Amino acid sequence: MTDRTLSIDIRKDLFGANEDAAELNAALFKKHGITALDIMGSVGTGKTQLIEALCEKLSKRYKILMIAGDLATTIDADRVSAHGVDTVQINTGTACHLDARMIRVALNDIDISKYQLVFIENVGNLICPAGYSLGVDKKIVVVSVTEGPYMVKKHPLTIKRSDMVVINKVDLAEAIGFDVESLIADVREVDATIPVISVSARTGDGIDQLIEAIEL
């Protein structure tokens, strides 16, 4: 590098811009008394069905907005919208996660003051989303028994950067010989205090406990 060459760490610049946007989002949610939740997890872990189950329980108590992140399609947003919940679709194209600036742009197009609860369904990915703050109250990571026994062991950083772990599809555990307690133990090895809630979004088992844990 010469005296006339400026070296820029683009990673620092990108993360810095995201953190600034996240702070603005957080301030906006706080201003309007909104609880905002970032729902993360791999494709097929049951994030959308979990949000549907939560909406069924909570839509009479809260005006809910769901922001759906996906590479393409409006499939998840359409499913939640069928429950009478307002939805906003963000198609990221090739980006493997949502970031705070995307959320900021989406919020600019709606009257956020109408809502008390915002679910943000992140792009189906268990790696990238954890590294980007969105300005939410809680980052909730969803894993499922159908993903195999090593999801937590293979993604410890995601657990560390989350506020809660939801183990979904526990109704299938016995049929496929899955040890849920072993998966919980894996979580505890990474973070001894993080809340872990076992649910079946399909049957509704554990949803009330999840709502209580989120403090809704």
Keywords:
alpha/beta; Rossmann fold; 9 helices; globular
Description:
This protein has about 220 residues and is α/β, with parallel strands linked by helices. The chain has one domain: P-loop containing nucleotide triphosphate hydrolases (Rossmann fold), CATH 3.40.50. It is about 40% helix and about 20% strand. The protein has nine helices and seven strands; from the N terminus they run αβαβαβαββααβααβα. The protein has helices at about 10-30, 45-60, 75-80, 100-110, 150-155, 155-160, 175, 180-190, 205-215; strands at about 35-40, 65-70, 85-90, 115-120, 140-145, 165-170, 195-200. Strands 3-2-4-1-5-6-7 form a seven-stranded parallel beta sheet, with helices on both faces. α3 links the parallel β2 and β3. It is globular, with a radius of gyration of 18 Å. The relative contact order is 0.17. Residues about 5-10 have low confidence and may be disordered.
Could you report the average pLDDT, rounded to the nearest whole number? Answer: 92
Low-pLDDT runs: 5-12
Identify the strand order in the major beta sheet. 3-2-4-1-5-6-7
The percentage helix is 25-40%
Please give the domain count: 1
Radius of gyration: 18 Å
Strand content range: 15-25%
Identify the CATH homologous superfamily: P-loop containing nucleotide triphosphate hydrolases
Overall shape: it is: globular
Number of discrete helical segments:
9
Oligomer: single chain
What class would the helix/strand composition place it in?
A: alpha/beta
**First-last Cα distance:** 54 Å
What is the CATH architecture descriptor?
A: 3-Layer(aba) Sandwich
CATH class: Alpha Beta
How many strands, what sense, and barrel or not for the largest sheet?
7 strands, parallel
Sketch the topology as an H/E string, one letter per element: HEHEHEHEEHHEHHEH
Named CATH topology: Rossmann fold
Number of strands: 7
